[in-house]
């Protein structure tokens, strides 16, 4: 029998502990000789990343490396591809010391052996984007070296590590401040890689470099065959000794091109569609050749087949409609990361000939029926300046409850990170934790998000803290105007760049009654002055402007400069080992709020970096957030500790 109860007070079978237990992610998928391999995070093991393998469909996945081995690295702080096949072995990076190790995955008694030397300082050398040398005797990769205590004092090189364990590092190239994806040609005569320099981010502009390999294994002078100041390459792979397949956006959309060694480029299927994505982590894969001029590719968020003979891109119908990249293909079989409206990210294996789809990831069954999960509704809203704002609405959903007649639900506006990122319409147990309690969620792809071409992405250029705030506010007001949300109970939440937008919105006139800023960018001047990691230390040149000429704008848009302008309560959640958005900035903001009469709370989580990975943190953060909303939006949630709010 359906019970009548106010929104926010509905009893849900989905506890915060359940969300935390299922909160692992899958990543870095590959396919070799019919076996699928991937990395998988384990919240209940302190966020450890395990390496997994699975053979035939229906077979039980096996863990390749037991605890304490943690297949993860710190390159760019977001990490890059941490493992690769080399000469029948697995090479991988270990989080604890950031060194590269090798192991025979078929020898159950084998112990990993280090290939890289012990660094002079803790985590002083970091490695990522591992690949095999042409002869299989070396691991080629990116090495990032911390030169001093300053996080921005970093050097990057492409290096070779011999597989014999001698730990003699050989530098291959040092062409740019940032480099990624060293790939030797099939005949071993050339090597290709990506490079870019400050202040560009890789999605702004980078260069695809090619150089000859000499007989002694050194690399000659490189030449640029694709990319540029306003052209981004996000993936490349050799097709033959004389040509590469390249995802680049010279026409404003990441399309697939064939590029020869002289730089001649052919778009294989010209379309105003994103067939790639932003290179936040080194080693992304959005396409994989199938043979005979056909390529598996991610079109927006759909798995598709690009046929260069007809110049078409055709979606592949599957039970998992959203594919998130990490594609690999072999003998007509495609593997990658996929999800659906009621399915979180899984490792998926699809036989294109038969249409057989297998979910290889093993997860515990959810402690609730699908009827408790919201079905995301894809919507397009309109910004104050007439631009479209894509968003996904997750309405309150619980078959056991209904609200009193005439009552409207509170709504949370979720702001994704990046800000060069996006949200897709798949299951989020994080969202379901709230929707099953009668709290709606809307996830917004504000101006600056990816997936809609360069022009949409560059709506945020010079306008961070303006366009993102306005777009999120416009979506919230539209939901209230149409009668879907309670205008007096609108909240905003987000992490990282989403945490910045949350704090910015709460320190200026907006429709939001409160906000939850998680590991936020909070002090724009400090961020742009080097108090962050090197990868993003010049990011704000494009998002706001060069600090030297735009200092007043930085001060105007920095939440740290206006705590007295807070228009409502705020919750601040922060990892205490965060090198991207330093905890000192968030803590200073919390101290500045003290005594202003504004309800607030600050929680710092030991052992967490940028983002929350530990089960105990995920649980505590969700329960604190729910209690915070209950106190501010005036409902009494069930079964969560009451968060102490300060004024």
- Which band does the percent of strand residues land in? 25-35%
Specify the helix fraction band: 10-25%
Mean pLDDT: 95
**Which sequence of strands runs across the widest sheet?**
31-32-35-34-36-37-38-39
- Rg, rounded, reads 24 Å
SS-based class: alpha+beta
Per the principal axes of the C-alpha atoms, what is the gross shape?
A: globular
Major pleated sheet? 8 strands, mixed
CA distance, first residue to last residue? 42 Å
Stretches where pLDDT is under 50 for at least 5 consecutive residues are none
Query: What is the number of helices?
Result: 10
The count of β-strands is 39
Short description:
The protein is of the alpha+beta class and 647 residues long. It has an eight-stranded mixed β-sheet, sandwiched between helices. Strands 26, 27, 28, 29 and 30 form a five-stranded antiparallel β-sheet that branches. Strand 19 and strand 20 form a beta hairpin.
List the helices and strands and how they pair.
Blueprint lengths: L2 E2 L11 H6 L4 E7 L2 E8 L5 E7 L7 E2 L19 E4 L2 E5 L6 E4 L9 E2 L10 E8 L5 E9 L7 E9 L7 E4 L4 E7 L5 E7 L10 E6 L10 E5 L5 E8 L2 E6 L6 E6 L4 E3 L19 E5 L2 E6 L2 E6 L4 E4 L6 E2 L4 E3 L2 E8 L2 E9 L5 E3 L17 E6 L5 E7 L6 E2 L8 E5 L13 H7 L4 E5 L9 H4 L9 H15 L8 E6 L1 H10 L7 E5 L5 H5 L11 H4 L3 H11 L12 E6 L7 H11 L6 E6 L9 H19 L14
Parallel strand pairs: 1-33, 34-35, 34-36, 36-37, 37-38, 38-39
Antiparallel strand pairs: 2-3, 3-4, 4-5, 6-7, 7-8, 8-9, 10-11, 11-12, 12-13, 14-15, 15-16, 16-17, 18-19, 19-20, 20-21, 22-23, 23-24, 24-25, 26-28, 27-28, 28-29, 29-30, 31-32, 32-35
